[in-house]
Amino acid sequence: MTSTSVEALASGPLFGLPLPELWFVLVFGLLGTFLFLDGFDFGAGAIFATLTDDDAREAVLSAIGPFWDGNEVWLVVFGGALFAAFPAVYAGLFSRHYLLMFGILGALILRGLAPEMYEQRHDERWQRWWGRSFVAGSILAPFLLGAFAGNWLVGTSRSFTVVGVVVGITVTALTVVSGAAFLRLKTQDALPKTVMWIGLGAIGAYLLGVIVTLGVLAVQLPAGVDAVLSAPVLALVAASVALGVGYGVALRLGSNMVALVAAAGLTYGLIAVVAVLMYPSIDPAAGLTIRGAIVSMLPLNLMSIGAALLLPLIATYFAVLYSAFSGPVTAGEAY
């Protein structure tokens, strides 16, 4: 690269694009992608707790087996993007909430280790222990992730807060919504009909959780009611209600792919609400705005070029992965 091209990259954003805002959207988009893709794995783990038949439990493990470890890549990509574009936010946010971070990582490790250990021996006591570990990791991971997101939004340095608990419960319910649709899609008649009813109950719990969350945020956010009742937030909430109704209808009719797409819309909608309420800040606790926390122009431009090249490759990998393991799991298929 010549000195002239380096100077050009350091002098202003590529093509005059609003790169700080685009990276803000990208960071939250990556978080939403992780929450959806690994979310249905978490939801499947929570539903696993309601099943007592060995064949049904094997069907759950077989459904998520090819995907769960790949889905966790998006959490790494989210952290990498936050570190690359907003290093001060990454440092401050993760250091303030290191207990939650370790909790999330511990839950992910437990959720990943448990199915492997579950399959190693087939005596009742062994499988009961590791089955419970699988459920615990699948519930704790989204709950702690939700607590982290809630605390990030209101700018608190405490690990456990009212808003964190409320958002954590809401996110956990959302993962069950995704998990029920995914399991119905992948296992079809291999699981009892109670999975559908669990999904319907979860969508009601999620929508109630959204309302309670907004009520708590109206009290705790600096802008209060004005922020919660802003046009973008109300539009996203209305869209969530519509998607929730569509999800319920699709699940009842057996249109499981439609239900899963609706669950994806709900997930990205929730992340969009968090982003809208936070904007233009990106670290309320430290008083950092997007433009105040962004890296200098040269690395920002170089990272933008790299992201434009690498993210399509990652997306292509996942398209191939999901295509290769498309279709329902077969009877007797093992994890």
UniProtKB/TrEMBL annotation:
<keyword id="KW-0812">Transmembrane</keyword>
<feature type="transmembrane region" description="Helical">
    <location>
        <begin position="302"/>
        <end position="325"/>
    </location>
</feature>
<feature type="transmembrane region" description="Helical">
    <location>
        <begin position="195"/>
        <end position="221"/>
    </location>
</feature>
<feature type="transmembrane region" description="Helical">
    <location>
        <begin position="22"/>
        <end position="52"/>
    </location>
</feature>
<feature type="transmembrane region" description="Helical">
    <location>
        <begin position="134"/>
        <end position="154"/>
    </location>
</feature>
<feature type="transmembrane region" description="Helical">
    <location>
        <begin position="160"/>
        <end position="183"/>
    </location>
</feature>
<keyword id="KW-1003">Cell membrane</keyword>
<feature type="transmembrane region" description="Helical">
    <location>
        <begin position="227"/>
        <end position="250"/>
    </location>
</feature>
<dbReference type="Pfam" id="PF02322">
    <property type="entry name" value="Cyt_bd_oxida_II"/>
</dbReference>
<keyword id="KW-0472">Membrane</keyword>
<dbReference type="InterPro" id="IPR003317">
    <property type="entry name" value="Cyt-d_oxidase_su2"/>
</dbReference>
<dbReference type="GO" id="GO:0005886">
    <property type="term" value="C:plasma membrane"/>
</dbReference>
<protein>
    <submittedName>
        <fullName>Cytochrome d ubiquinol oxidase subunit II</fullName>
    </submittedName>
</protein>
<feature type="transmembrane region" description="Helical">
    <location>
        <begin position="97"/>
        <end position="114"/>
    </location>
</feature>
<feature type="transmembrane region" description="Helical">
    <location>
        <begin position="257"/>
        <end position="282"/>
    </location>
</feature>
<keyword id="KW-1133">Transmembrane helix</keyword>
<feature type="transmembrane region" description="Helical">
    <location>
        <begin position="73"/>
        <end position="91"/>
    </location>
</feature>
